[in-house]
Amino acid sequence: MAKVLIKNLTKRFGNVIAVNNLNLEIADKEFMVLLGPSGCGKTTTLRCIAGLEDPDEGEIYIGDRLVNDLPPKDRDVAMVFQSYALYPHMSVFDNIAFPLRIRKIPKNEVEKKVKEVADLLKISHLLNRKPRQLSGGERQRVALGRAIVRNPQVFLMDEPLSNLDAKLRVYMRAELKRLQKELGVTTIYVTHDQVEAMSMADRIAIMNLGVLQQIGTAYEVYNYPSNFFVAGFIGSPPMNFIDCTIRENNNSVLIDSGEFTFMLPDEIGKLVKEKITSSEIILGIRPEDIVIEKKCSSAKGLIEGEIYVTEPMGNEIIVDVKVGDKILKVKSPVEIEVNIGDKVWLEFKPNKIHLFDKRTEKTII
Q1: Which residues pair with 3 in a beta bridge?
Q2: Which residues lie closer than 8 Å to 37 by C-beta, 6 or more apart?
Q3: What does the DSSP assignment read for 225-291?
Q4: Residue whose C-alpha is closest to residue 18's, from 52, 35, 41, 51
């Protein structure tokens, strides 16, 4: 197989910079997910790797080969599209066999390879059917089979699960991950769905407005976001954000939102003092890192609020708490008993607080 190296990739469409100076290395056999909102440049990046778009600047290497000037057919990649792109007049067998036949592979070898792939994907019983006779999940497997049978160096997947229903999507996430590890093929997967990215990727590359924001494992991008955008994009419900000012008080660091104030623990406060360049900050705290208390304890420095709405989710409950004119989302165990209008107190877990520079939006802690 092969690693993929992208150096200083830029792609423009008229006055729009779709991808802006992207540098990214995908290791051999790695499952890399390009994650971001619509229009962030992830699909354009994939199409440049495939040879379907020509970069305006930069270099793309697959293995040790510079592929900028190679046509798609010579790049040894296989692409799986959101639409599956199956030939409706062909059987499942013929759809899977198509890339082998255009390469003039002998008939007996074609049959052998197609049957091997069909067995791997558990679709041997469907080989004589036409695409219209298949379910969405079955069509997706045929599209995967057509990619796998070529034995490419790299799989490129563009939102391949987005047309499936929720239950099938969960199943196919696990199947795709299993297949990728079994085949050991370098895979670059595009999605706007953070759950897909977090559950499948070895590493995630998060993009916004054509710019790479952060690369890391699911754990790293969730717990240590590099900036305000990543922090808000990753997580469900999303991170709570509060505009605050920061100031010193008797050698301690005080966070003031206008609605509440609290002291940072000394070790965190010391770190913040070393890093801040402005008193204007944004405080971030994830819903699961807020604890609801029904009684006030002055020793904990709790924040007073009122229950605004509750959303039971089975084994947990999402609680909207009104603090002044701000609504904070809290994820709590379902056992908590609160009603709309109840007065409650919130505790922010100190080691889970995130602070962002309001001007640059970069992470302070």
Answers
A1: none
A2: 192, 208, 233
A3: -SBHHHHHHSSSSPPEEEEEEEEEETTEEEEE-SS-EEEPPHHHHHHHHHH-S-SEEEEEE-GGGEE
A4: 41
What residue ranges do the domains of the chain occupy?
4-233, 240-357
Fold exhibited by the domain 4-233: Rossmann fold (3.40.50)
| Type of residue at 136 | G
* Numbers of helices and strands, H then E, in the chain: 9, 20
Topology classification of domain 240-357: OB fold (Dihydrolipoamide Acetyltransferase, E2P) (2.40.50)
* 3-state class percentages of the chain: helix first, strand second, coil last, to nearest 5: 30, 35, 35
Please name the residue that has the structure tokens 């558990």.
Answer: 122
Q: What amino acid occupies position 28?
A: D
pLDDT in tens, the chain (365 residues): 699 999 999 999 999 999 999 999 999 999 999 999 999 999 999 999 999 999 999 999 999 999 999 999 999 999 998 888 899 999 999 999 999 999 999 999 999 999 999 999 989 999 999 999 999 889 988 999 999 999 999 999 999 988 888 888 898 899 889 999 999 999 999 999 999 999 999 999 999 999 999 999 999 999 999 999 999 999 999 999 999 999 988 888 999 999 999 889 988 998 898 899 899 999 999 999 999 999 887 656 789 999 999 999 999 999 999 999 999 999 999 999 999 999 999 999 999 999 999 999 999 99
